[in-house]
Amino acid sequence: MKRPMFVKNAPIDEKRISFIETVLQRLMRRAVKTASAMVTPYPISNCIAGEDVKGTVLKYMFSARGTVSKGLIRFDKKLKSGVIVTVTLENDEGGQAKTFIANRNQLLIEPNLEVFSGDRLTVVVEPSDSSEGKLNEVWVAFLWIPHVGEAEVKSFLIDKLDEIELTGE
Predict the structure, then answer these.
(1) CA–CA dist 148, 113 (Å, integer)
(2) d(Cα 29, Cα 34) in Å, to the nearest integer?
(3) pLDDT tens digits along 68-89
(4) What are the CA-CA distances from residue 151 to residues 42, 63, 66, 148, 165 (Å)?
(5) Given this model, what pLDDT does residue 157 score?
(6) What ranges do the domains of the chain cover?
(7) What is the value of pTM for the model shown?
(8) Which CATH class is domain 42-148?
């Protein structure tokens, strides 16, 4: 016959209390649920097409603090002498510029520029040798990751998150 855990009107000894605490700690470890949140980067992109594409191909102003993490610039053709790409970040206090040489028809860059509200991003392309040929199309895309403090915070109970996962809402 099973012995009852607690007998009515009987004192609880330290051994039983220790046993109960151990069981509770083990159950709590199993009950912990974690939730992860993603702060998705925002795409910034533009395409310029024409007879002779050069000069400014993208201008963008940031409304909040964040980081420009990656950039991809694609040209309609490869120029033998290359294309000079200048990425400039300006604000009221000054600015900074990074220059890259594209020797292929595609250039992947990681400027990792920290941006603040009101900062302006400008991308300029110039063929190294204008006699070699003209660009007819330039595609530009960057990823901007807003600072966590700028992200909208929503609170859910863990049970509600489980419902969202199951229903796909």
Answers:
(1) 16
(2) 11
(3) 999 999 999 888 888 999 999 9
(4) 12, 12, 10, 5, 21
(5) 61
(6) 42-148
(7) 0.67
(8) mainly beta
